[in-house]
């Protein structure tokens, strides 16, 4: 267990690694995180004459690389030796003398399962999916966590962040694993910090987060037993599972700054940051909230709104005579999409609205373009600082294995374009009813034209130039004409 410096101060000098483990063969798992020792034995490290020196250098290596793996079997390592190694990693890198190994709060729960030899140990938490369902049955901040499909993005966490003094090192030992699945993933907090823009770095360094985990109290109450206390530190006592930690912390061993308490399973709120209180306008397949941009604030009324349709309806209702006038004139918008292609982005719901014809049209236009978003994703103009994070989110959301899975080339791409063109045929017919102008109502633009135009602007930005020209010419050129006619509305003044 370690004390936590914030992003600006460091009470001790960073530690320098020696050369005591340089003889061990290793492979860095990636440029930014992870190191694997394919042949090293921890038992040999313990029996070496310079064992403490090796453990200290190992600890510093872990702090620098984030996680290390010992691939060769370690069956000769006892539980007591595992505990000793974990304890020494902290002791040798400046852990407060009064602190020790963490104790899991729910050690007294009868649903905990023993180790392979049938024994239990308060410093060892045996991870088991079936036991976890019972242990965390009262966990309110993991909605639908036990149902499929599951948003595993909610599971990110730093170990024991719910404690005043979280763990400084954790030792995960795999004894029984399934043939597939059950993976544990790691991410570099250093890299997350480094990818922030300078203004966001400066802002985040001023913030703290409340890391509450009420499940421990509710589980104890439901099971009729006491929580373990203290838990590795005199500061980790009773039911105090709501500490505040810095969002950015400086690692006391390396001196490097890291995103620490900003996101994840144990974070309940960012302190001092006021919620906009704008409800989510869409839902993912697992029923989790999806928020959209843009968001507007009207200082005249104090209103805050998100999602294009809601904003347009508000502007029409509040300022009916401003701008180009009526955004929702009466018209028939009979365009319905029937498509079973998996969607990368949730669709707007056809909620009760004062403009139901337009709400339904919005849903179907979104469905038509979203169903073929794969044509555009490879050309998305990502911010270089967050490109990999954004790509990983698309991969997770679509349920594919990597970004390259989105690629459409050659015959497959041509077939997809043909399908897209055919799907837009019904939409094009709306624009051919009145040929006096480029809009559905001829010379008068409405919200219906704007929602189609917004998708066309995205196509212009994300399709190869030659393919965008193809789209412009589809169905007699109605989409190219609409795009050009809406240019006058592209800039808000």
Key features of this structure:
mainly alpha; three-stranded mixed beta sheet; three-stranded antiparallel beta sheet
Please write out the topology.
Blueprint: E1 27-28, E2 35-37, H1 42-47, H2 51-65, E3 68-70, H3 79-91, H4 129-135, H5 189-194, H6 198-204, E4 208-210, H7 215-223, E5 244-246, E6 248-250, E7 257-259, E8 269-270, E9 282-283, E10 289-290, E11 295-298, E12 303-306, H8 308-318, H9 356-370, H10 387-398, H11 410-423, H12 425-431, H13 447-462, H14 465-485
Parallel strand pairs: 2-3
Antiparallel strand pairs: 1-2, 4-5, 4-8, 6-7, 9-10, 11-12
Helix pairs in contact: 2-3, 9-13, 13-14
Written account of the structure:
With 493 residues, the chain is mainly alpha-helical. 32% of the residues lie in helices and 7% in strands. The chain is built from 14 helices and 12 strands. The chain has helices at 42-47, 51-65, 79-91, 129-135, 189-194, 198-204, 215-223, 308-318, 356-370, 387-398, 410-423, 425-431, 447-462, 465-485; strands at 27-28, 35-37, 68-70, 208-210, 244-246, 248-250, 257-259, 269-270, 282-283, 289-290, 295-298, 303-306. The strands form 5 sheets. Strands 1-2-3 form a 3-stranded mixed sheet. Strands 5-4-8 form a 3-stranded antiparallel sheet, with no helix packed on it. A two-stranded antiparallel sheet has the order 6-7. Helix 13 runs antiparallel to helix 14. The longest helix is centred in the last third of the chain and has 21 residues, at 465-485. The radius of gyration is 28 Å and the shape is elongated. The two termini are 55 Å apart. The relative contact order is 0.09.
